[in-house]
Amino acid sequence: xxxxxxxxxxxxxxxxxxxAVLLLTACGGNGVHGTITxxxxxxxxxxxxxxxxxxxxxxxTRKNGKTKKSCHxxxxxxxxxxxxxKDECYQIELDHDAHELCISKKKWNKVRVGDKW
Length: 117
What we know:
Radius of gyration: 25 Å
Helix content: 10-25%
Mean pLDDT: 81
Number of helices: 2
Largest sheet: 3 strands, antiparallel
Low-confidence stretches: 19-29
Shape: elongated
Number of strands: 5
């Protein structure tokens, strides 16, 4: 369409998609190899932080017959307790790529230190 312009958010999303795919591929188990140098089980953990509570405040202004609404977040002075959970991990460490991977319990039980991954 002549004169059609993509919104800036859509352009950013389109540009970010290939980067996300690249990062997920690079961090995944595919292509990661080496000799297993360590096995470790890490139990699930939950930690807590206190974070400020906010509320949304809005105001309207009128100029030249048009009303403009603007909103922003305001801290209330209170805090809330927020849980941060880490799932259990059956971890192996590889020498060649210096990677630490979480794998399934079934695979973790089968592999031994010194095995090739």
